[in-house]
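Need a sequence for this fold. Nothing fancy.
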């Protein structure tokens, strides 16, 4: 039993998967946090482009 516990404690198999999942979760949280500011900026840029196109067409 003691050997089983020692082997179980020292086993690192599957550790990479957990690390990748945590990293992906952090990226997802950062992306969600950045979306409102980014969407406002993109909307402003497209509005300006649209007004420039409309003024040059008429």
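Here you go.
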């Amino acid at each position: 039993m003691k050997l089983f516990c020692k082997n179980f404690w020292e086993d690192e198999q599957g550790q990479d998967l957990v690390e990748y999942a945590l990293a992906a979760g952090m990226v997802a949280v950062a992306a969600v946090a950045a979306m409102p500011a980014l969407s406002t900026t993109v909307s402003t840029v497209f509005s300006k482009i649209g007004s420039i196109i409309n003024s040059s067409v008429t």
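For context: Helices lie at 2-10, 15-57.
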